[in-house]
């Protein structure tokens, strides 16, 4: 599989990444080479094989869904880049006047 | 002998008897860190004063009974992928620069409850993606056996700290070999527990269906003591197993030899074309030692081994692209200066914050999960994962555990792997498949290739860590690698 420039830029957009123009070509080539190697899996006959997404062998333990306050608001906000003391602040979401 | 040269269990026993103080042991480790850290660069964060204060307070209030304080006074370090309340936690990434978590990881809580003293946070490959610790945004850790070489990765800082005697144990994490490989390259012990044996709460996620936390130490006995403390159910991780934790020390000492144990050698591993002759010879010596200890050796096959790299890197990249979507500059971590709008804030913050290897894996993950490619890549890789696990289950029906090299080569020179990511992925050929299968693996030092240490891995059935400790303990004692330290 090889990625052309348009595919690569689409992938960057999906990933919310924007590598430098100078780095884009090298990264696209590396991704293409890695994907070409992945094509090796086509050699394996997987007819009727169920995908395995998690190796959990034991029964997962469920707990009651009970609301609890593990941490104070101030402790959570202390790590935020920008707050007004009560909420996270981000650039305007709805653009316009 | 200096205090820092003792094993964890040796120093623990001296502390219990009152023959040394927690402060003296902590000072010994801090002095050792001061002496070795300028060349090893294993730590991203330290808490010298807080650790000494903690040690003095512990000495002033020695417990009468140590049964619920199995690590009382023992200095340890943890990989910077685990949260420690009040200590910066970055996963060696710029995107988490300045992040100070308001909570402890489950395993950190367990260490603290057991009386361990945390000295610092270990360097690593950014978000645990890498096999050399060169992919840290902050520094490249060196190998204490030869500071021009890599310590392995991604838990390279943990392995280097342990090998350089900066601490008695460190916690690492293993997603595709990140505990076992650096343990092997630095001549120490590391165990990746069965998936679900240890809680992932507070472990910054890379690939959630692979990640496991485990100890790195200088003796097998020490690894067993550490796993005893951190293993067990935690309701905050639904994949964490409720299966009871056995007494690992009892399992490790259940017999004095390896009689009655059948060890399987996977022919695809020992016959691998990239296997270094020195590594092969050291592994063969370990197999011979196991036979002399009474083990029966059989050959087994893991026929899908050659597909493990492709399967792993598709699935792990997919999970990474999803897990790392949370780093958006909103709630914590790096935010770009003066974003033009919300979308620019996301994109610029992420582009500035993530290093190239992390960006590559996010892009690959987005690709294999995107419409049109999902079936051909993601689903296909998960089908192959089931076949790989079936190989392990079949092989482990013919024997009690598998024995195999950990890394095809000993530690290589810093910068030697260059800019080809695929070449680096190929170095993980012997470790990835175990994570695909979710089974436990113990890496133990067995000898040298030239002047560099070589490890072997013992891979077992689910939740059979006790027998891995039994075999690993016997082997390292007869091979003279028990409590091996880097000559620095």
Task: Report what the structure shows.
- The complex is a heterodimer of chains A (97) and B (488).
- Chain A is flat, with a radius of gyration of 23 Å.
- The model of chain A has no long low-confidence stretch (mean pLDDT 90).
- Chain A has a domain at 5-43.
- Chain A contains three helices and no strands.
- With 97 residues, chain A is mainly alpha-helical.
- Chain B has 488 residues and is of the alpha/beta class.
- Chain B has a single domain, classed as Amidase signature (AS) enzymes, CATH 3.90.1300.
- Chain B has 17 helices and eleven strands.
- Chain B has helices at 8-17, 22-40, 48-60, 106-113, 156-163, 180-185, 220-230, 248-252, 267-270, 277-292, 308-323, 342-353, 356-369, 374-398, 421-426, 432-437, 465-479, and strands spanning 43-46, 75-79, 117-122, 169-174, 189-192, 212-217, 262-266, 296-300, 401-405, 441-449, 452-460.
- An eleven-stranded mixed beta sheet of chain B has the order 1-3-2-4-6-5-10-11-9-7-8, with helices on both faces.
- In chain B, a hairpin with a 2-residue loop joins strand 10 and strand 11.
- In chain B, helix 11 packs across helix 13 (356-369) and helix 11 packs across helix 14.
- At the A-B interface, helix 1 and helix 2 of A face helix 11, helix 12, helix 13, helix 14 and helix 15 of B.
